[in-house]
Amino acid sequence: MSKGRTDMEVGADGVAVIAVVNPPVNALSVDVLYSLMGNYEEAIRRNDVRAIVLIGKGGIFCGGLDINVLGAIQKNILEKVKVDYIDAMTDALEVAVKPLVAAIDGLAFGGGLEFSMACQARISTPMAQLCLPELQLGVIPGFGGTQRLPRLIGLTKALEMIMLSKHIRAEEAHQLGLVDAIVSPEELLRAARHWALDICESRRPWVRALSKTDKIEPPEQAREILKFARDQAQKRAPNLKHPLICIDVIKEGIVSGPRAGLRKEGIAFQELFFSDTCKSLVHVFFSQRATLKIAGVTDLGLMPRNLTKVAIVGGGLMGSGIATSLILNHYPVVLKEENEKFLNAGVDRIKANLQSHVRKGKMTQEKCEKTLSLLTGVLDYERFKDVDLVIEAVMDNVKLKQQIFAELERHCPPHCILATTTSTIDLRLIGQNTNCQDRIVGAHFFNPAHTVPLLEIVRTQHTLPQAVIDLLDVGKKIKKTPIVVRNCTGFAVNRMFFPYTQTALFLLDRGMDLYKIDHACTGFGMPVGPFRLADHVGFGVALGTGMQYLEDFPDRVYKSMLVPLMIEDKWTGKASKRGFYMYEGRRKAIPDPDTMTYVDKLRSMAGSSTDPELVKLEDKDIVEMVLFPVINEACRVLDEGVAVKASDLDIASVFGMGFPPYRGGIMYWADSIDAKRVHAMLSEWEKKYGQFFRPCSYLSERAAAGVPLSAATSQAKARL
Ligand SMILES: C[C@H](O)CC(=O)SCCNC(=O)CCNC(=O)[C@H](O)C(C)(C)COP(=O)(O)OP(=O)(O)OC[C@H]1O[C@@H](n2cnc3c(N)ncnc32)[C@H](O)[C@@H]1OP(=O)(O)O
């Protein structure tokens, strides 16, 4: 946070060019802010300076406030940034006696975009991307963005950008009036200088964003727009306050004028720094980047090879989702199926995935067809001879996978990485009939693979670091957040979340209403409750996984016969339209009264009776009972070295299971509750309900020593 600077050069034309220099994204660190103000004041003072251009060095304008500053303030390492001072800075730019023009190449994010909006004009290159992403960090724009953006582009568009942290490209920004001209990168500086001098010489208007009123909608319409935005924000994230605070701040500017709006923005911005939401989201931001740093893999100086052609074996739900993701990100894909019928079905699924992009306006029909042309369907291995990566995505059957991997070794070039999507089978077993265990790696995607943002990369003791590096690179290019884990049953994500549905089944057996359990979990912020999740995954998969877990972890599998009972009647979850819910149309899930017939049958078969204490549990207690066993398993996953660090599990839970990011991820949340309490509750439940709830040694030791669950093992050992 105390690094970076700005450089100033004054040209013979009288234009001072102030460049932000703080790679990799030119974030506004404390040093950059002070340096910027120093340069600015000097430029205003100097008689040889007539105008100022603000630019970022290295093809990036500015990635916003240095997020380390937020973290440091939260931890009291740094005194609160003087927001008054920053306001004064943006104000100073806006009311400067010499014109300022922002020259934007690459990213103009957060505080960076806000500084540019305080300038009198913005010139960009075609590749520029503009965004106010502050809400994703639990704060609101704090350098005047809540007031200047609506005045530059109107309330409707400004709210869309701010509330959804929506990126816009130069062309759209130009149409909206946020960017005044688009020029090539080579022309950027020259054009910005000219523009600034043109303002000096009154050939172009001197625009002060805060004084603009022409884009703001009339009062009645503005009220409606703000109300709609509020309703949407509440619907999207009922547990979050900062989006509503942001709307209040914008409203203040509309109702009482931009000065009042700026004042309110400053106060709210400072207060939000210290909210748990902001702390959690900052943790998620850095943890997400940290997944790419793996000791013994990414610190060896290896560079990712350029994998240009990918093949997929199996065009089922998973294979077609992965293919969609790859072609959407410009990878040519060969899709192999065993017969014409399955191949057509796979290709149709991919077409349907792309069409849904067209329907939602994310893609034109023309682009859709171009994207689809990257896909080649085949029935044999002929085209595998020049592929760089194969992803096997057939059903989880050891013999079948072993046969496929032996064939892949024969047909693919020797550098080709062979990946499997298995979620349960030991990778060493899959590669047993090959001599290329060092190129075998797990690429565990989550269904639907083209939308779920997590990719679990699984390595064995044989996997070469180069194969992991290459897959990390592909993962990043197809916009997945990858976490690298070690080979074991269920890997990190499925293993960690296995108890989620298990505990729910336990509660159901003891008389709790299943919809109450799901409701409690979604109220906490999970996208779906455990029963809806089971429907989505499908009972066949759930049962298969359950059997595997029973074999590998017999001490902690809760044996419920409910799912097998339903499968007997061909109720298999969402795919069969009957499961714990009934399904109408594509999405609608309706509580199914007939499900209770199975529950009652099971209860009478097992002779189980309602537990009066459990059925009285409130939502908060249900959430703890369902999620504490998840924490317990996450501790085991960490202790066994399946995951490298606790923050990887936070990311896995957020991006793989939809754990609410504003709670920081599963381990972060556990530490916020305190390991002692998690341990105490599990111990109490173990006594009452059996070993399913028994706390593992990692949790017990850390709870006893008062060490956070997320503390790195070496630090923790020193304290244990
Ligand atoms: C007052 C204001 O209103 C408040 C603010 O401005 S709050 C900050 C607003 N800005 C943001 O939220 C931007 C956050 N950053 C991003 O979205 C993305 O990093 C990006 C789009 C800028 C670049 O993405 P990408 O090219 O994929 O690179 P990415 O790996 O994410 O980042 C590269 C490095 O820059 C760092 N970085 C990115 N933005 C940063 C920021 N604003 N502060 C500090 N570090 C940042 C990352 O941590 C990463 O560091 P590492 O290499 O050590 O892991």
From TrEMBL:
<keyword id="KW-0560">Oxidoreductase</keyword>
<dbReference type="Pfam" id="PF00378">
    <property type="entry name" value="ECH_1"/>
</dbReference>
<dbReference type="InterPro" id="IPR018376">
    <property type="entry name" value="Enoyl-CoA_hyd/isom_CS"/>
</dbReference>
<dbReference type="InterPro" id="IPR029045">
    <property type="entry name" value="ClpP/crotonase-like_dom_sf"/>
</dbReference>
<feature type="domain" description="3-hydroxyacyl-CoA dehydrogenase C-terminal">
    <location>
        <begin position="622"/>
        <end position="706"/>
    </location>
</feature>
<dbReference type="GO" id="GO:0006631">
    <property type="term" value="P:fatty acid metabolic process"/>
</dbReference>
<dbReference type="Pfam" id="PF02737">
    <property type="entry name" value="3HCDH_N"/>
</dbReference>
<keyword id="KW-0443">Lipid metabolism</keyword>
<comment type="similarity">
    <text>In the N-terminal section; belongs to the enoyl-CoA hydratase/isomerase family.</text>
</comment>
<keyword id="KW-0511">Multifunctional enzyme</keyword>
<feature type="domain" description="3-hydroxyacyl-CoA dehydrogenase NAD binding">
    <location>
        <begin position="309"/>
        <end position="488"/>
    </location>
</feature>
<dbReference type="InterPro" id="IPR006176">
    <property type="entry name" value="3-OHacyl-CoA_DH_NAD-bd"/>
</dbReference>
<keyword id="KW-0276">Fatty acid metabolism</keyword>
<dbReference type="GO" id="GO:0008692">
    <property type="term" value="F:3-hydroxybutyryl-CoA epimerase activity"/>
</dbReference>
<dbReference type="InterPro" id="IPR006108">
    <property type="entry name" value="3HC_DH_C"/>
</dbReference>
<dbReference type="GO" id="GO:0004165">
    <property type="term" value="F:delta(3)-delta(2)-enoyl-CoA isomerase activity"/>
</dbReference>
<comment type="pathway">
    <text>Lipid metabolism; fatty acid beta-oxidation.</text>
</comment>
<dbReference type="GO" id="GO:0004300">
    <property type="term" value="F:enoyl-CoA hydratase activity"/>
</dbReference>
<keyword id="KW-0456">Lyase</keyword>
<dbReference type="InterPro" id="IPR008927">
    <property type="entry name" value="6-PGluconate_DH-like_C_sf"/>
</dbReference>
<dbReference type="InterPro" id="IPR036291">
    <property type="entry name" value="NAD(P)-bd_dom_sf"/>
</dbReference>
<comment type="similarity">
    <text>In the central section; belongs to the 3-hydroxyacyl-CoA dehydrogenase family.</text>
</comment>
<keyword id="KW-0576">Peroxisome</keyword>
<feature type="domain" description="3-hydroxyacyl-CoA dehydrogenase C-terminal">
    <location>
        <begin position="490"/>
        <end position="583"/>
    </location>
</feature>
<dbReference type="InterPro" id="IPR001753">
    <property type="entry name" value="Enoyl-CoA_hydra/iso"/>
</dbReference>
<dbReference type="GO" id="GO:0005777">
    <property type="term" value="C:peroxisome"/>
</dbReference>
<keyword id="KW-0413">Isomerase</keyword>
<keyword id="KW-0520">NAD</keyword>
<dbReference type="Pfam" id="PF00725">
    <property type="entry name" value="3HCDH"/>
</dbReference>
<dbReference type="GO" id="GO:0016491">
    <property type="term" value="F:oxidoreductase activity"/>
</dbReference>
<protein>
    <recommendedName>
        <fullName>3-hydroxyacyl-CoA dehydrogenase</fullName>
    </recommendedName>
</protein>
<dbReference type="InterPro" id="IPR006180">
    <property type="entry name" value="3-OHacyl-CoA_DH_CS"/>
</dbReference>
